[in-house]
Amino acid sequence: MATPRTALEDIRVLDLGRYQAGPRIGLVLARLGAEVIKVEAPGGDESRKQGPTVKGQSAYWVQYNSGKKSLGLNLRSEKGKEILRRLVKVSDILIQNFRPGTMTEMGFSYENLRELNRGIIMVNVSAYGQYGPYRDRIGFDPIGQAISGMMSLTGFPGNPPTRTYNPIIDRITALHGTIGTLAALHERSLSGEGQCVDVCLADTGFSMTEIQCSAYLGAGIIPERTGNGRGLQNTYQTKDGWVLIAAVSDNIWPRVCKAIDAPEWEKDPRFARPSDRQHEWQVIEQRLSAWFAARTVKEAVDTFSSLGIPINAVNDIPTAAQEPHLHERELLVEVPDPIAGRIHVSGKFTKLSRSELAVGSAPVPGQHTEDILTTLLDYNTEDVGKLEADGVIYRPAGE
Known about the structure:
Blueprint: E1 12-15, H1 21-31, E2 35-40, E3 53-54, E4 57-58, H2 59-65, E5 69-73, H3 78-89, E6 93-96, H4 102-106, H5 110-116, E7 121-126, H6 141-147, H7 150-153, H8 168-191, E8 196-200, H9 201-208, H10 210-219, E9 233-237, E10 242-246, H11 253-259, H12 274-279, H13 281-293, H14 297-306, E11 311-313, H15 317-320, H16 324-328, E12 332-337, E13 341-346, H17 369-376, H18 381-389, E14 393-394
Parallel strand pairs: 1-2, 1-6, 2-5, 6-7, 7-8
Antiparallel strand pairs: 3-4, 5-14, 9-10, 10-11, 12-13
């Protein structure tokens, strides 16, 4: 038997997700080799219009949907629902991030799906979960940051609560969903049964503040905001930019003393233990600020790195986009694009030693509709034409 080229090449996914958290699960599975069918309303998913744009193409859209197939399907029609039911029978996973209860109203609850396919795995993504006190509320990424207390810890003292610029809650929720999906796939290989995966933005937010919530519940500790950090974990300005250091480990302290020409500090009782150094952070920060201010970013990074002290330049986006690490490790990969000509898409963020990763282009709306219907569901060309005329399916003009 031939070795699979990719880890999930025998897995088929129906992606009914919108925007970020749901579709990102589908993207990760596509990179691992699964066939991911993006089910879009006629005309295409609304997030195709989300900026920023590159030569007319949404850079937002391609990061969540490149490498997928597009099926233009009107799920408001009974014939459209019948097509989805038939696809469920020949698929392994269905991802959705509608408000809880919507799939049941459409006739696609897990119980309905299981009647069609005992092995189907249903991945449910929502703001507050499929059960709980706020189940019926809707939300986006910042909701997870707000409910969990994360925003109260982000930013500098005295400033308003601050959200992260990038959607960290969506991204981590997608990872939680992917992990749950892969676990369910493994369990299915043992039991023969599918199951539901339930992940949400609020849960992800609390996974980010679990240490602080535990400390408060157990000892009444209320954390302070510290901006970029203090002392040995902080940002420092150099002659030509900023660096960040993270020198918190006890065994790194002697290296810091050597780097900044302060050998006397290594035996100084003020700095004997990590807790002592945290208490004396202002003294340490004053010395570090002066040291970094007298050097360039390169000089500071070279000195600290050569001694095994964690440090990196604080890049702006133009600099980050040119980072050798980004390109050598193929974290962004330039691919052909039907609108932009070529565009960079999310690449190989997980590496496997034997299995390849699949990075593809983003489809145009309904690009694979005819192929999916004729290949997987045995519709003929005449059937496809009639379904299109009835508004049940959508495919690009000229097909």
